[in-house]
TrEMBL record:
The active site is at E251. Keywords: Coiled coil, Oxidoreductase. It comes from Paenibacillus rhizoplanae. Residues 68-95 form a coiled coil. This is Aldehyde dehydrogenase family protein. The keyword Lipid metabolism does not apply. It holds the Pfam family Aldedh. It comes from the Bacteria.
Length: 495
């Protein structure tokens, strides 16, 4: 096992059970200290991507016939390997991503929770159904699709890879995974740990540039695309996949709103801590994080005061390996510049920008991709920092006057991934029923309200399809209906 907190890690493409060298490699820096190279990952060629797809297609011929009990047993062994290597994985993830150690452990926790759920439920969820009825007999089976191209993002690289790998393989498919170049190392290592428990070709890992992504989305041997990432990239994927009409599961951007009703108790310190965490966990780089906050005008001033107090208590910006750190750097320079641009735009428009939290190490802060978390007040409902997904450590808080207004503000967004409503439970549920979102949480938000037993996905431009839950397993299958009619002659067809 690699020593991820000490060594420079090198990963290669993994095709048909073997590491495949590449002609060139890219360096992955430590976002907390960009002068430190954490490791290197390959620039996979288009030809190698084709090789991986063909290996997966060949392996599928055998793997699809493997009994479900064996698939589950292999996945359980893979889970134990990940659990045994958790500390090494966490240290590598923290170094390449910038997550504080507690957050990196949390990602492994969510990953294993989902993989175990999928193992526990796969046999019953994929069980064929046989119905005897007046017209005869009908058999409904859930058949594997074939080769799955899985493209994962950098913000939760392990969790958002395993969310695809586990159900795809349990359903009898094979897979080609492409991790993000902004967090490629830990995801590749975890995928290889899983692959070690499966036949060659069942799991393949490639890296590389846009031409590799295009091949994964266009190649006719690929039956399904599972993508988590930005809406703009998804539009290109949809166009490429349209040539061969591929099945797709797309979990995309979100501009998730948190709505605080006048019944919310601003003196509830634990609730205030939950909303702060839901804004700034993983430095605000989570698709389902609360990115805009609407507060009823009657409690607005008190809310802002208590929010700042809670944020200043919880937010400690520093080295991800410092146990006191709760917020690390932004993952990459491009994202840092984008978020910084939104904050400066808001300031130029007249908004009040309030820095939050404590910087633990000023020298480290200045040399890394750090941004001090900020609260943005007095902005317009339609300013870019409100209507665009920031994906970083800043959040606007805006007042609203009545429920109808805030429902409109929520629903006019092009996104609809998650939302949250805070206040008296029955009233909050009534509001939640009127929101256009895949998931709405009551009196909590973000991963604090995530339950892998239930489907997750978005409305509108936040995605297509669902992950997690039974739907997250069946989405990697085709429903196959076999009809055995009792009466073969139809009364309305003449002899």
């Amino acid at each position: 096992m690699w020593k991820a907190d000490q060594e420079t890690v090198i990963v290669e493409a993994f095709i048909n059970g073997h590491h495949v060298p590449s002609r060139s490699q890219s360096a992955k820096e430590n976002p907390a200290d960009p002068a430190e190279i954490v490791g290197y990952f390959p620039v996979t060629t288009k030809e190698q991507a084709v090789e991986a797809i063909e290996a997966a297609a060949e392996a599928f011929k055998i793997w699809k016939k493997t009994p479900i009990d064996e698939r589950i047993a292999r996945m359980r062994k893979a889970i134990e390997k990940i659990r045994a290597a958790e500390n090494e994985i966490v240290h590598l993830l923290s170094r390449e991503h910038g997550k504080p150690l507690y957050d990196a452990h949390g990602e492994i926790y969510v990953s294993l929770m989902w993989m175990e759920f999928a193992c526990n439920e796969a046999a019953s969820v994929l069980q064929e159904e046989v119905q005897e009825h007046d017209h005869g007999k009908t058999i409904l089976s859930y058949d594997p699709m074939g080769v799955v191209a899985a493209i994962s993002p950098w913000n939760y690289p392990i969790a958002l890879s395993t969310i695809k790998i586990a159900p795809a393989l349990l359903a009898g498919n094979t897979i080609v995974l492409k991790p993000s170049p902004f967090a490629p190392l830990a995801a590749a290592k975890v995928a290889e740990l899983i692959a070690s428990e499966f036949p060659a070709g069942v799991i393949n890992v490639v890296h590389g540039d846009a031409d590799v992504g295009v091949e994964l989305t266009r190649n006719p041997l690929v039956a399904k695309i599972a993508f988590t990432g930005g809406t703009a990239t998804a539009k290109h994927i949809i166009k490429a996949a349209s040539e061969t009409i591929k099945d797709m599961t797309l979990e995309l951007g979100g501009n998730d709103a948190a709505i605080f009703l006048d019944s919310f108790d601003v003196q509830d310190e634990r609730a205030m801590r939950r909303i702060v965490i839901s804004n700034f966990l993983t430095t605000g780089q989570i698709c389902m994080i609360a990115k805009r906050v609407y507060v009823h005008r009657s409690i607005y001033d008190a809310f802002v005061e208590k929010y700042i107090e809670a944020a200043n208590r919880w937010i400690r910006i520093g080295d991800p390996f410092d146990a006191n750190t709760t917020v690390g750097p932004v993952n990459n320079l491009k994202q840092k510049n984008y978020v910084q641009g939104l904050i400066e735009d808001a300031r130029q428009r007249g908004a009040k920008v309030i820095p939050l939290g404590q910087i633990l190490d000023q020298q480290r802060f200045e040399q890394g991709y750090y941004l001090q978390p900020t609260l943005v007040l007095d902005c317009d409902y339609h300013d870019p920092i409100v209507v665009e997904e920031q994906f970083g450590p800043t959040v606007p808080i805006l007042p609203f006057d009545d429920v109808e207004q805030v429902i409109h503000l929520h629903n006019e967004s092009i996104y609809g991934l998650t939302s949250s409503v805070w206040g008296q439970e029955e009233e909050a549920i009534l509001v939640a029923r009127q929101l256009e979102a895949g998931t709405t949480m009551i009196n909590t938000a973000a991963v604090q309200g995530l339950d892998v037993r239930f489907p997750f996905g978005g409305f509108k431009q936040s995605g297509i399809g669902r992950e997690y839950g039974a739907e997250g397993i069946r989405t990697y299958t085709e429903q196959h209906v076999i009809n055995v009619p009792k009466t073969l002659d139809l009364p309305y067809i003449p002899e």
